[in-house]
Specification:
This protein is of the alpha/beta class. The protein has helices at 5-15, 21-36, 65-78, 100-108, 110-115, 129-141, 148-160, 165-172, 176-182, 188-192, and strands at residues 46-49, 53-54, 61-62, 84-86, 94-98, 119-124, 145-146. Helix 1 packs antiparallel against helix 2.
Length: 205
C-alpha cells in the first residue's frame, strides 16, 4: 500500500538534513499524536493512483446530469474536499466503497487528473465484504436516489448471506414496509416467504 499522508510527513522529517536529531524526534511524536488523537479511518489518508481503483458491483446510487455538472464545477473551483472510501488492497487493486461519482468525474476529466497527478485521496475501510456493502448504502442513502432494482439486489445479497430481515432493516436504515416492497423485485419473495414480520425481530451477528 502507498504511504499515508502521516507517514509521508514523518519520512520528510527523518530525511531532513536541516533539523537536529533530538528535534526530529519531538516533531515526529507531535505529528503522530496529532493524527492519532481520534482513532478514526480519516486519520489515515492515502494518495493512490486513480487507475488502481475499481468500482464496486452493488452501488445503487444514481446522480442526474445537472448534479454531475455541479459536482464537477465544485471540484474544479473548490478542489477535492473529501477522500474516496475504498476496501483494502487486493492484487494491487482497491475496490471503491463510497465516492463513485467523484471517482468517475476525476477519472474522465483531464484537468482534474492532471491537477492531481493521476492520484486521488482515499481512506481504507478494513471491514468484511458484506459490511462494505452496508457502508456503501449508508453513505449514499441520504445523498442520492437509490434505484429499486439495484437496492433489491443488495438486499438479496445480504439475505443470501444469512442476514435476517431485521438485521437488513437496521443496517440499511429501512422500514419494514420498504423491505416488503423489495420482495417484488428479482425473486425476493422466495427469500422472505417464510418470514414473520414483526417488531420482535432480533439482530443476529
Amino acid at each position: 500500500m502507498n504511504k499515508s499522508v502521516k507517514q509521508d510527513i514523518v519520512d520528510i522529517i527523518k530525511e531532513s538534513d536541516f533539523i537536529f536529531e533530538d528535534y526530529k524526534k519531538q516533531l515526529i511524536k507531535k505529528i503522530v499524536t496529532t493524527f492519532n488523537q481520534h482513532r478514526e479511518p480519516i486519520s489515515e489518508v492515502f494518495w493512490i493512483p486513480i487507475s488502481s481503483i475499481s468500482p464496486n458491483s452493488y452501488n445503487p446510487n444514481k446522480m442526474a446530469t445537472p448534479e454531475k455538472r455541479l459536482l464537477l464545477s465544485s471540484m474544479l473551483d473548490h478542489g477535492i474536499t473529501q477522500p474516496l472510501l475504498v476496501a483494502p488492497e487486493k492484487n494491487q487493486r482497491y475496490e471503491l466503497i463510497d465516492g463513485y461519482h467523484r471517482w468517475r468525474i476525476i477519472k474522465t476529466n483531464k484537468e482534474l487528473r492532471d491537477r492531481l497527478n493521476q492520484n486521488v485521496p482515499v481512506v481504507v475501510l478494513n471491514i468484511s465484504n458484506k459490511n462494505q456493502i452496508v457502508a456503501a448504502i449508508r453513505h449514499n442513502r441520504a445523498r442520492g436516489q437509490h434505484q429499486v432494482g439495484e437496492i433489491s439486489e443488495v438486499v438479496k445479497i445480504l439475505s443470501n448471506s444469512g442476514w435476517s430481515p431485521r438485521k437488513i432493516m437496521d443496517a440499511l436504515g429501512m422500514e419494514a414496509d420498504e423491505v416488503l416492497r423489495l420482495k417484488q423485485f428479482k425473486g425476493l419473495g422466495e427469500l422472505f416467504k417464510d418470514e414473520d414480520y414483526s417488531p420482535s425481530w432480533s439482530w443476529e451477528e
